[in-house]
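Quick one - inputs below.
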Amino acid sequence: MTDIAPARPSRRRRSTPAAASPASTSPIRTRALTKRYGDFVAVDVLDLEVRTGEIFGLLGQNGAGKTTTILMLLGLTEPSGGTARVVGLDPARRPLEVKRRVGYLPDAVGFYGNLTGRENLRYTAELNGLAADETEERIGHVLEQVGLAGRADTATDTYSRGMLQRLGIADALLKDPDVLILDEPTTSIDPIGVVEILDLLRSLVRDRGMTILLSSHLLGQVQSVCDRVGIFAAGRLIGLGTVPELAAQFGGAAAHLEVAIAGDAEVADDPATRALLASFDGVAAVDWNAASSSWHVAVSPADASGRVREALLRAVLERGLRLTSLRVLEASLDDIYRTAVAGMAVAGTTTEVGQ
Amino acid sequence: MTTDTRALEPGLEGRSAGWRIVARKEFSDHISSARFIVLLLVLGAAAIVPLYFASDAIRSVASQVTDTRNAFLALFLFSPSSVPIPNVFNFVGIVAPLLGVAFAFDAINSERTDGTLPRLLSQPIYRDDVVNGKFTAGLAAITVVLLAVVGVISGFGIVRLGIIPSPDEVVRLLAWVVLTILWVSLWLAFGLLLSVVIRRAATAALVGFGVWLLVAIFGQLIISLIAGVLAPVASAATAEEFVSLSALSATIARLLPLTLYQEASAVLLNPSVTTVSTPTTVGQWQQWQQQAQGQLLSFDQSALLVWPHLVSLVALTAACFAAAYIMFMRQEVRA
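Output:
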């Protein structure tokens, strides 16, 4: 799975890997990119930059403008305004050159059902002008990578949705792209398969120096694999950064400690314990969580593993309480996303968030 | 920068072999598809059956007349009197549109519903490579079908009836095949247009076959109705008026592509046909008969006679294809 770019005597072989190009040339960069369909603004003045060798997650609800953005990056639809640069080229003007170097997995990818998986890939290889002698080897390699080698010679009519998705990734990798754009890559793949695919993406970045842009509404997966995340709502980028950065930005600057003390479950929401927890320095709020029979203590992130925990442990020892649970609750992308979108709706910047 | 070295590589940018690859793939799909085999069998049967009934009649005539010129072409023109079956060229005129629509009605919309279109377009080919390739593949498949059918009829004539075609007949036959391919490609372009405009393949097929039915069965009726209203030949008081009115009604009839095809076919396959317009009076007919007696047109004269028909068919095909092309180029990749 790791040998991504074998030395191939090919006219497409590049002398230096993409990762070695200067840092100033981001593989994907947009400036005020806008797409309007009549009155509807699908993508609204988007400034986006994806750096070489990173996995960038585009996060947003259905209809937030993720796919439209991707189509503009590939030159498959023309922007209404602004510019895009992909591998240093304008996709609206030089789409062929861009498409030769960018692998794309479309949302709900499909294949010709009368052909086998291998035949479908062979067609893609032909369209990419791959030399005939290296095509078969390359096809075998990408099929191995996505774990489809065993089913490659049956008609794609018989494939499950997840298998089609895997074949789609193989299809996008076939041309050995510098940039990989994946639209909802893990939808309808089973959980174990998702782990495999995400591992594959990481190894592509690590070994091949590929740059990956993926869009998803499955937040947990995005969180686990992406270096940086852009939160998309109603055609706008409302948040950008690593998950911790976004947590700091949208998490209300609060982290949570989950605290459970023996005997709490019997006396739900015991006022004495509440008072005790609230008495520590740096605690912003104390909530009884009936579902897990524990206290959620809101603290500022810097204090979560620091002062408050220390004070709590000391108090527990002094009073002879039996602590059954103490852990830091990380801000999940889910929470961040909800806060971000809600914050946007409250701010009244747009009325289309709910769509 | 890697970008620049890539761009300078010869033969990469501006390489436009995409349509050829698309066409090759589509053609091999067509050849192995059930619809190809079914259409081949239907057309083949339709060509053989009247031939079988006609062969006895042709043989008896051929043995009596020593100087039967164009006995070979009679294979395509002969309509047996014993059974009500149209002759080959009339039959092809009616059925060929079916062939064109059948090979194109799902060209684009099935790519759309199967989710293969975005994937196809994200490969390094131009967008028009897709329509061009598909049209070319359809044309190639149709050519194969028509050549096979014509080959079967000719072979039948040569082997079973012993009629060897003269060079002039071969040329005429080939010209007729070209005309027929043109006629079918008009419907192919129409089918392609439907596949671009109508998102569901089943709807596109229904519309295509509906239009075909309308043209093939009711077309003549509707046209003659219009002609009857606009140019009522019966109301003609003088000979001049009569002639001008019948000319007008013939022009109206030619608005129907089927008329164009049938007139051109008759001229190309039958050297004794010296005029494209049918005689409308007994006098005219007699005059026409006298002209036709013993006087056969050479191929180039026949070709000259149907040149306007050919140009009209090419223009109609081009218009249909251009509409499909432009609409496809303007459509969003996503529905």
